[in-house]
Design a protein that fits this description.
Chain lengths: 278, 276
């Protein structure tokens, strides 16, 4: 009986195999990368256009053009990581449940959630990571504030937290295919929910905005995904105001709790799985 | 003639029945498609909060107030319900690649006419089912609208919607026919979708585009797929500009109707019947 599998080694093999597979159709890979990058450039163009007409997104919020571009680049970085590592896999997972091929994953001597979540790496999605980092560097040169060492250390940690929150939401929704059979609408739902994370949380205010903001911060925490790391880069930390520290502290909690909940949903889903084939 | 009408009627009826199978899922999906409008309401609210007010106390961006912007996005949903043709070009491309297209060559049906009737049926069912969700959303958002336009404007609006449908159909059909020459057209379709999304006014009113960009985008047919009918409804184009706009839209419809015909005629000559 072999011992605990070497998870890192297995993941490295997944990544390598995916790269080999992508490199088999190099032309396609290049086109995919260019296609998603051009989509991103069009989006950046849209915001450039908005900032021709307004100095700031939300009066007095501090999200001026380059601050917002730091926000946008954080969105790009987080989304490209989620797309590269999890999106295809979660999609595949729903399909495996529907067709019954999840049986093969269950038989393997490795944690099923690990196997299902990470077996394919979409390398072409990492192109947008480059675009995001480029935009980030460009915007950092143009904001007056220079982030210190603490925000720079915390930034990748909060990006990781954001990726974990989005991953948890996605895998939990995909696992629901066990009970629903078909899951296209739920995936659309994921897209529509994460749509809320794409803007600074300050824009949700007023009679309807405030409850919306609280809901998407504390119940379905998609608002902390981009907001917390982006604030680290775009604004100087002000430790005197307690609110500055509460949200980042909550973001760590949200990531851990989100992961725990998704793990629980995943296990429950596996327990209810009845295999569709034969 | 009578036989031809009977065939058309049968095609329309079968397509209608086929489409009604999934009506529940469909109505729910339509309602959910409005969810992004919630973020748009807040995004533009925030954008406008930092824009200075004009003389009448209303902040404006290219002559659109905040309410105009939200009304614009809601009305774009209506235009897109007419002009968007999900799967049309890719379907034609696939039929050419896997050889299914030969059924139009053997049977006494005209491919373009068949596809057009099929789309009409789909759209009719779509409107019947989507009317509920659309009415609900527009009722909830009625405060954003300036009110109904006058009779002639409304007629012009309906005409531009009908032409938006035809233009959407013939434009996508033409692109699908390119499959006769290239077989694999998915990258081309991606470029088309990208252009369509950004330059049709789907994402923002194209009045916002400055200088040469505005001129370029206005010279392309995409604006008639989303922007133009909305601008008519909101009274952003009127008088001679409205008449000219409708004529140019008609020109593009005729142009792409002819282009799709020609592409089909010459494409079929090249066609070598791949697949079983």
């Amino acid at each position: 009986m072999p011992g605990r599998p070497n998870y890192l080694g297995v993941f490295a093999t997944f990544a390598r195999n995916s790269l080999i597979r992508d490199m088999t159709f190099r032309g396609n890979f290049v086109i995919d990368t260019i296609a998603s990058a051009s989509w991103v450039f069009m989006n950046i163009g849209f915001y450039v256009l908005i900032f021709r007409y307004t100095p700031m997104i939300g009066a007095g919020t501090g999200w001026g053009k380059y601050q917002f571009f730091l926000f946008l680049s954080t969105t790009l970085v987080i989304n490209s990581l989620v797309q590269a590592f999890f999106m295809t896999n979660a999609d595949e997972f729903s399909e495996q449940i529907r067709t019954g091929s999840l049986d093969f994953a269950l038989l393997k001597p490795i944690d099923t959630q690990f196997l299902v979540s990470l077996q394919r790496v979409e390398w072409s999605s990492l192109g947008n990571l480059g675009v995001g980092l480029g935009l980030m560097g460009y915007s950092l040169l143009r904001v007056e504030y220079v982030p210190g060492i603490v925000p720079l250390v915390l930034y990748p940690i909060y990006v990781a937290c954001g990726v974990v929150v989005l991953y948890s939401l996605m895998i939990a929704l995909a696992a629901c295919s066990v009970w629903l059979g078909r899951n296209q609408t739920l995936f659309d739902f994921w897209f529509y929910i994460t749509n809320f994370s794409r803007y600074p949380m300050e824009i949700y205010r007023g009679t309807f905005g405030t409850p919306l903001r609280l809901f998407f911060t504390f119940v379905v925490p998609v608002l902390v995904v981009v907001n917390v790391p982006a604030r680290l880069l775009a604004r100087p930390l002000d430790p005197r105001s307690p609110g500055q520290w509460l949200l980042p502290a909550f973001a760590v909690f949200a990531a851990l709790a989100g992961f725990a909940v998704s793990r629980w949903v995943f296990q429950r889903a596996l327990a209810s799985y009845r295999s569709a084939s034969s | 003639m009578l036989a031809r009408a009977a065939t058309s009627w049968t095609i329309l009826r079968i397509s209608l029945e086929e489409r009604l199978v999934y009506r529940g899922d469909f109505a729910l999906g339509t309602l959910m498609r409005f969810l992004p409008i919630v973020t748009q309401v807040f995004l533009w609210g925030a954008v406008f909060s930092a824009v200075g007010s004009a003389d009448d106390g209303q902040a404006r961006i290219v002559n659109y107030t905040y309410h105009d912007f939200i009304a614009y996005y809601l009305l774009v949903f209506v235009t897109r319900a007419f002009s968007s043709m999900p799967g049309l070009a890719s379907g034609i491309g696939r039929d050419i690649r896997d050889g299914t297209v030969k059924k139009y060559l053997i049977q006494p049906i005209d491919m373009i006419e068949f596809l057009l009737l099929y789309r009409v049926a789909h759209k009719v069912v779509y409107y019947a089912v989507a009317l509920g969700p659309f009415a609900l959303v527009f009722f909830l958002c009625r405060g954003f609208f300036p009110g109904w336009p006058d009779g002639p404007t409304l007629l012009a609006y309906l005409a531009s919607l009908a032409m938006a449908f035809l233009l959407g159909f013939f434009l996508e059909a033409t692109i699908g026919m390119i499959g006769f020459w290239f077989l694999e057209i998915s990258s081309l379709l991606f470029v088309y979708m990208l252009f369509n999304f950004f330059f049709s006014g789907h994402m923002f009113p194209i009045d916002m585009l400055p200088g040469v960009w505005g001129v370029l985008v206005r010279a392309m047919p995409f604006q008639y797929l989303a922007y133009f009918p909305v601008a008519v409804f909101l009274g952003k184009v009127s008088g001679p500009a409205l008449a000219r706009g409708l004529l140019v839209q008609l020109f593009w419809v005729v142009f792409f109707a002819a282009a799709s015909r020609l592409a089909f005629r010459y494409g079929v000559r090249r066609y070598s019947g791949f697949g079983g």
